[in-house]
Amino acid sequence: MTAIVGMVTVPALNGQPLHSHSPRAIPPKSAPFQPLKWDMLPPWMTLQMELRGRTEDQTAYNYISGNGRVYELTRVRGSVTMRPASWFTGYVQFHDTHALGLPLHEVAANMRDTFDFRQGYANFHYRAAQLIVGRQLLIFGDQRVVGISNWTNNSRSWDGADLRIGKKNRIDLFTTSVVTVHPTSLDTHGAGLTFHGVEGNINTLVRGTSLQPFVLIRREPLVTSQQKIKGAENEVTPGIYFSSKLPYHFDASGTGDFQRGSYSNDSIHAGAAIIRGGYTLARSSWAPHLVLEYKYATGNSHRNPDRISTYDQQYPSNHNAFGLTDLFGFRNIKERRASLSLLPMRSAFVLLQAESLHVASVMDDVYSGSGSASVKPPMMGFASDDIGTEFDASGRYLFKKHFLLQAGQGHFFPGALMTHNQHGAPLTLMYFQVGYRYSVHH
């Protein structure tokens, strides 16, 4: 849940880290585009293709003990970029995604979308101002508040408009609606624009520090309150994110935000925070980077029947936010995490991590990565707040400059809360992914 860096409109930047935490470059999270040439292509046009396949093995799919699943997630993307004038850029992107080896009723909503448009926008730009209109991506900070969720097969996009003014220091104003994926028909968004915001990106006020204040506004036209009364949701989320490089190879980042508004006849009072502190042993050949992290998102105690205190996680990229197994979302949760990253060679990156997970309120649900309830408490609440612990190891290797190989394994040990509520199956997830992208120019 860190804050907003702003809307990324250049496809090649998607998934790239904002900073390098060590003196050595970190291999990218997405395969770099291999440049190719085609003389018959107009000089103002660029073609791009992306191929990605990931094999996953889960030992307890859907929390069912012994329900092992091995399946293949495939993703093909193609795009056309057009720059017919110095003040105009047009972009169109399609994707085709599938989950091979899973029964259809077990295929999650983010795994499958048969040939559809993921992006299509017009970018009008003059000096330090841009207006982007159409289907596009929103990438804010490290995507813990709003992001594209690129790890998932379908990924996320929005329909709407963004006005960006400035470069090194800038402000974004956007009005959008998130796109709903329909696996066998064209993707759409809900009626009207429902997600709006303003974000500032200040990089020159404090040396080595980025300050990014933001205000997000979310409106849903039809919701049902705790008293079963239908109405509209109007929610405002102000907050600020910071990222800082400190002396002596220390670094820090964090976010604080809170939410106010109405949910039909109920009031909204919620909030969340993340704080990270890191240290890089710069003189070591592997440049080890140790990070300690704490996350907190409020839950609903139900002490006030007219108040909702469950934090709304907005539209995050939740992959590896609470472990590689991706079982949990940023609602009613507390996490303590320690991670160690290593750079054993120029093109390799290794990450080791351990996390302890608890609910913030024993009277509220345990939530999945999508934000839906996965475990509901009994009438008197959970007897324990212990969701469980997880240990993960992952890495990526850039092969021949343009083939990105990624592999990882995570194991979730369920705590007392899970074992006492029919979700006590330990889960091991293993994956291996290959990605390749190329770009064709005149």
TrEMBL record:
Domain named Alginate export: residues: 45-420
Pfam name, any one: Alginate_exp
Protein name: Alginate export domain-containing protein
